[in-house]
From TrEMBL:
Protein name: ABC transporter permease
Ranges for domain ABC transmembrane type-2: 25-270
Keyword Transmembrane applies: yes
Cellular component, GO annotation: ATP-binding cassette (ABC) transporter complex
Subcellular location: Membrane
Transmembrane regions listed in the UniProt entry: 24-45, 65-87, 120-139, 145-169, 176-197, 245-267
Pfam families in alphabetical order: ABC2_membrane
GO molecular function annotation: ABC-type transporter activity
Bilayer disposition of the protein: Multi-pass membrane protein
Lineage: Archaea, Methanobacteriati, Methanobacteriota, Stenosarchaea group, Halobacteria
Key words of the record: Membrane, Transmembrane, Transmembrane helix
Length: 276
C-alpha cells in the first residue's frame, strides 16, 4: 500500500539517486561535455568574443560572460538523461511494476525529478568553481553562486519534463536519445549563450528571442554580472538584476508547469497493457 504522496516522492527520490550512484558514467558524460566547451571556447574564441561583448564599453572577460551559459548547458545536458532513465525502466519492466502499484503518479514524477535536480545543482556548482578557477568573476560571491544554481534547477525542469514526454511517447531509448540531442545543440547555439543578441545574425536573433535557453542564460548572466542583462524583453518596472530575473523566471516557470503537467498526465494515462 502507498503511505501517501510524500512517501511516494521519497521512495522514488532514493531509488533514482541510488541508480545514479551505481551508474556514474552518465554523470561524468553529462558534465564532461560542458567542461570541454568551457575550456575550448574561452581559450580559442576568448580573444575575438571579448571584443564583441564589450562593444558598448565595459571590461567583462569572456570567462565571466561564458560561465552562465555553460552552467545552463550542464542543466540542459543533465535534463536530457531524464527521459533516457525512464525508457530504461520501461524496457526493464520496472515502470510496469510501478504502474501496478498504488503510488501517486505525481509522486513518481516528482521523486524522480527531485533526484535529478539534486544532481544538476551539484553539477552547476562544479562548473561555477571551475569557471572561477579559470578567471571568471561572480559579482555577488557565494549568494550569487547559489542563485545561479537555483536558476539552473528552475531552467532544467521544463526540459526534463519534455524529455520524459518524449520517452513516454516513443518508449524507445534510441529514439529518446536522438530526439533529445537533436534539440539540445540547436537550442544552445541559437541563443545568447556565446555572443550578445545584437552580435548574432538577424534570423538567429529571431530564433533566440523565442528560445527558452536564452531566458535561462540571461537570468544566470544577470546574477553573474550583478546587473540587468535582458536583451529580449524590455522590462523597467523593477530595479537592476530583477528586470532580468522576473520576466525570465516567469517564462521558465510557465514552461516547467506545462511540460511537468504533460509528463505527469502521460504517466497517469499509461497502463500496464500498453507498456511494451
Amino acid at each position: 500500500m502507498s503511505n501517501g504522496f510524500l512517501w511516494d516522492v521519497w521512495v522514488n527520490f532514493k531509488r533514482w539517486n541510488l541508480k545514479a550512484v551505481r551508474n556514474p558514467f552518465v554523470l561524468v558524460v553529462s558534465l564532461a561535455q560542458p567542461i570541454i566547451f568551457l575550456v575550448l571556447f574561452t581559450q580559442v574564441f576568448g580573444g575575438v568574443a571579448t571584443g564583441a561583448i564589450n562593444r558598448g564599453g565595459g571590461s567583462i572577460t569572456y570567462e565571466t560572460y561564458l560561465v552562465p551559459a555553460i552552467a545552463i548547458q550542464v542543466a540542459l545536458a543533465a535534463a536530457v538523461t531524464s527521459g533516457i532513465g525512464l525508457v530504461e525502466d520501461i524496457e526493464e519492466g520496472i515502470f510496469e511494476k510501478i504502474l501496478a502499484s498504488p503510488m501517486h503518479r505525481g509522486g513518481v514524477f516528482l521523486g524522480k525529478a527531485t533526484a535529478e535536480l539534486l544532481r544538476i545543482a551539484v553539477q552547476v556548482g562544479i562548473i561555477l568553481v571551475l569557471g572561477t578557477l579559470l578567471g571568471a568573476s561572480i559579482a555577488g560571491g557565494i549568494p550569487s553562486a547559489l542563485a545561479i544554481i537555483g536558476i539552473g534547477v528552475v531552467f532544467s525542469l521544463w526540459f526534463m519534463g519534455l524529455s520524459n514526454v518524449i520517452a513516454l511517447v516513443t518508449r524507445d531509448q534510441e529514439s529518446t536519445i536522438i530526439a533529445s540531442n537533436v534539440m539540445q545543440f540547436p537550442l544552445l547555439f541559437l541563443s545568447t549563450g556565446f555572443l550578445p543578441l545584437d552580435a548574432l545574425p538577424g534570423w538567429v536573433q529571431t530564433v533566440a528571442k523565442y528560445n527558452p535557453v536564452t531566458y535561462g542564460i540571461d537570468a544566470a548572466r544577470a546574477v553573474m554580472l550583478g546587473r540587468d542583462t535582458m536583451t529580449v524583453i524590455e522590462v523597467t518596472q523593477f530595479t537592476g538584476v530583477w528586470n532580468t530575473l522576473v520576466p525570465a523566471l516567469a517564462i521558465l516557470t510557465v514552461l516547467d508547469l506545462a511540460f511537468g503537467a504533460a509528463a505527469v498526465y502521460l504517466i497517469g494515462r499509461a497502463s500496464s497493457s500498453s507498456v511494451s
